[in-house]
Design brief:
The chain has 255 residues and is α/β, with parallel strands linked by helices. It has a single domain, classed as Alpha-Beta Barrel (TIM Barrel). The chain contains 12 helices and 8 strands. Strands 1-2-3-4-5-6-7-8 form an 8-stranded parallel β-barrel, surrounded by 5 helices. Helix 11 links the parallel strand 7 and strand 8. It starts with 8 loop residues before the first strand and ends with a helix. The model has no long low-confidence stretch (mean pLDDT 97). The chain binds phosphoenolpyruvate. The site of phosphoenolpyruvate has 14 residues, from strand 8.
Length: 255
Amino acid sequence: MNKALRKAVIAGNWKMNKTPAEARELLEAIKPLVKDADCDVIACVPFVDLDAALETVKGSNIAIGAENCHWEASGAYTGEISAPMLASMQVPYVIIGHSERRTYFGETDVTVNKRVRAALDNGLTVILCVGEYLEQREQGVTDEVVAMQTKIALMGVSAEELKRIIIAYEPVWAIGTGKTATAAQANEVCAMIRATVAGLYSKEDADALTIQYGGSMNAKNAEELLDQPDVDGGLIGGASLKPADFAEIVKAASR
Ligand code: PEP
């Protein structure tokens, strides 16, 4: 299996933006612009927007995701949301291990793995984020860091469950900074992740895995990034809040 046989996935990560009413408005604007997409289209939204978002996209080709979930099903974890809670709302996707969670909220490779397990156990599909800090890239340890994040996050995940994992390679220095990895840099690390997954599972499993690039992807640079043989889609932050820009990226992934 090669890139031509993997469906591209474009996922928006809205981060901490939009009230439920604004979420409805944004999705209503995006819906007609992406209705002919030849790729999967996902909007990952704040927890409080999930209900409105799920209702707004009914009958459309947009799927909804959450931006995180806890590893326990319930308990004394003030402020957290569990995977069974998301499953009970029929939320199909969840982002796990975003660099903002790792940087600002003490997420570690081990807690990422626990959250991945909980999401899979509850039937969700995971968008698993990995990526290096600028200092790590400058020290020449990008491959080691990203391979380690990938291996730890996938601990205890079976080959069958891997079919419900999308990996998003997001160099931390490119997120929200306007600095994009070059197409060659993005492809190189996505290919390395695929080789790592092939080592853990099989070449066939790795060839079937969707690997996205994320980090200041926008309407202008999307085509070149998405053209790369190992880049199967994008995780989009800032541009996912702008309907026309998000639609351009979806269009680029549909070509
Ligand atoms: C992200 O939040 O995952 C992201 C890639 O953000 P941005 O596109 O704004 O860099």
